[in-house]
């Protein structure tokens, strides 16, 4: 779809805002609707839009497969790691009260990292599935 | 939404089916927003209408746009669907009335969450507080499910790629 001028211009204008909105949903999720899951999906959708308009190879150059696959596992590790940190600091598994001196600050910190973990895994998985589906056709064609 | 559902069932062209289900998802998201479940509505709009439409369209380019001809015996699926609908409707009769303040779900932990979530976690959005803190284990499991889905897709599709390479 590289030939469509309007699509390209509109996508170029939209994608930065989609990414910023994803960050907003991620970090403002404490105060407004949203959170890690939604932010991850929105960020992945921005990259998908890029891939649809400018072609899969350029999307793969922007966010390489190795990065995506690392993200898939890294998010779960962050989430589980927060639980282990709580364990190490003398609390229960996934106990956020011990993460900071002030229990409320500990809660905020725990929720923050947990949401980041969710966002990373979700956007990694979405992007990976998109790459897999979109990439198969091309391989069949080249064969 | 009912019209859209009938359209999805009747339509033989899979491209229209994908678009119709995308519209259905958007309507569902507006319903959820009307029910004050903005978090869920957001998820429905982004996942149901956005990402899954793109993925289904990607799958369509792989397998062609027309639905296969139906089998001869069409009454059995219809009967099955009717039975399941009957069972579900019968089940809803046992549920408490809509927005009934005395429903069991509002009696046990929900008031405690609503009263103390802000002071205990410092997070004004109670949905986030419940998801990430009170129900942290559930969300960890959920994230693991997403991870497993991704790992499954990677395992299935990549093996096919290797097999194709070996066959060459």
Number of helices of chain B: 7
Euclidean distance between termini CA atoms of chain A: 22 Å
Average residue-wise pLDDT of chain A? 81
Assign the structural class of chain A, choosing from mainly alpha, mainly beta, alpha/beta, alpha+beta, or little secondary structure: mainly alpha
Overall geometry of chain A: elongated
Biggest sheet descriptor of chain B: none
Low-confidence regions of chain A = 139-143
Shape of chain B: extended
Give the number of DSSP strands of chain A: 0
Rg estimate of chain A, integer Å: 18 Å
Greatest contact between two chains: A-B, 53 and 47 residues
Strand content of chain A: under 5%
Strand content of chain B: under 5%
Q: What is the total tally of β strands of chain B?
A: 0
- Summarize the helix and strand pattern of chain B as letters: HHHHHHH
Number of structurally distinct domains of chain A: 1
Roughly what percent helix of chain B?
A: over 70%
* Oligomeric form: heterodimer
Structural class of chain B: mainly alpha
